[in-house]
Amino acid sequence: MPTATPSAPSPAMIDAATRHVRLDIRDPAFYRDPLPTYAALHAACPAFYWEEPGQWFFTGYDQVNALLRDRRFGRQILHVATRAELGMPDPKPHLADFDRLEHHSLLELEPPAHTRLRTLVNRAFVSRHVEALRPEIAALCHRLIDGFEKDGRVELLKTYAEIVPVTVIARMLGVPLDMAPSLLDWSHRMVKMYVFNPSEETEHDANRASADFDAYLRSIIAWKRDNPADDLLTHMITSEKDGERLTDDELVSTAVLLLNAGHEATVHQLGNAVATILQTGADPATLFAEDTTTERTVEECMRYAAPLHIFQRHALSDIALEEGITLKKGDRIGLMLAGANVDPRRFSDPSTFRPDRNEGPHLSFGAGIHFCIGAPLARLELKLSLPILFERLPTLRLAETPVVKDSYHFHGLERLDLTWG
Asked: Does the global pTM surpass 0.90?
């Protein structure tokens, strides 16, 4: 986890004149603490050409915020161009099952397909429906802590941070809770595909997980058609828009996305937040004294120690940006959400964790039409699980120094060992 005020030098080699940057994503000095590198980039070239992945990246808050909303860019490209036109390689046969889930994913679609699908799903995630989950989430948090409080020591990710969000999203969808271990396993194996240059072994494993996830959800969907219930899967099966319903492929892809995104980032964020609070010596009694301080603490945790650092976009046409950057149709750009969150032009003393900060929104949930649909749910889970944890275990402290995963795209911990008493 980053320290309160990073002082280590950045491992990036930055040529400010050409705006070219060399940076090894696997360098522990970078992925364990990216804040010094973000500070160096903000000082030299907030828009830069990262040589290793071979594309332009943006770290400025205003840049990233605008590009997330810029309809000249999209999450997909093959709806406006062919692979041959773009010089893209053919799909890899050993990723057929993974690619099929991605093809219909809400996260990857553009209007009008995105609009149709999001409209059918969005109702379940509006604030009033999410707020109704408050008693159930709080009870779950207390029940989990009951299970390990007497031990005086716990690895928090497996026993708390993972279980809270996966239980909540499984209940919302109507998936049996005893499947949670399988859901977590499939999800963890699939999201390894979203880092830079996954290995072929990772690709094969992600494809197997995708196939198993797909088969299981199709069986659940078939059962729910004959046994409808008050849950999100039933709602998606029965809902219509303009006389159309979701296909089975769309249902499965949407359920996979909600299950993966509905817990993966929250697990990292919860672990990052607890580690940040303990490492910086902040007083939990003050942080969570009442609703306003709790809300600001949660937002600052998401700004300072974001779980997702990069979001990609394709240029849907040839584009000339104000920064003097020219892009060809199909070029990808990287939007560094976590870098934007520590832009000194937007946030004062940005590399310091200040839980009373009130300087406007961060970009950890993205922006524009792909703004995180589950943001109200993630915020509620954090606003309940963090105060309850520190209230129940007021002497909580780190048992070991947390180790950040070698997975830069997602910023999270390998494990979080805590002790108290």
From this structure: yes
